[in-house]
Amino acid sequence: xxxxxxxxxxxxxxxxxxxxxxxxxxxxxxxxxxxxxxxxxxxxxxxxxxxxxxxxxxxxxxxxxxxxxxxxxxxxxxxxxxxxxxxxxxxxxxxxxxxxxxxxxxxxxxxxxxxxxxxxxxxxxxxxxxxx
Length: 132
Hints:
Elements: H1 2-21, H2 25-30, H3 35-62, H4 67-101, H5 105-131
Helix pairs in contact: 1-3, 1-5, 3-4, 4-5
């Protein structure tokens, strides 16, 4: 049970770094109107997820896990979640921009909260479907 809790916390940490820290200013302000910047954000997100998966793979391998099989599954997990992240951001970023453009920050942040709830749900559900 503790393994699952720690894994979910690690997934959330990875998501935070990938979605907020690694997202540049240009990505955040332009992804709502320009697919190029949305794609750049998603590629950065995926690269960060991959980098965070390496320590996880090394730990699993040290305790008798099979690197090749698990690494393919993790790559699939990352690509599935990159796709889900792209779809979510495509719609939510447009709505957030509409609210922020009219200084309706409350509703803009409601959409940001929905965006993050959707990302977290996708990450956890795909984890459970693929690995448990």
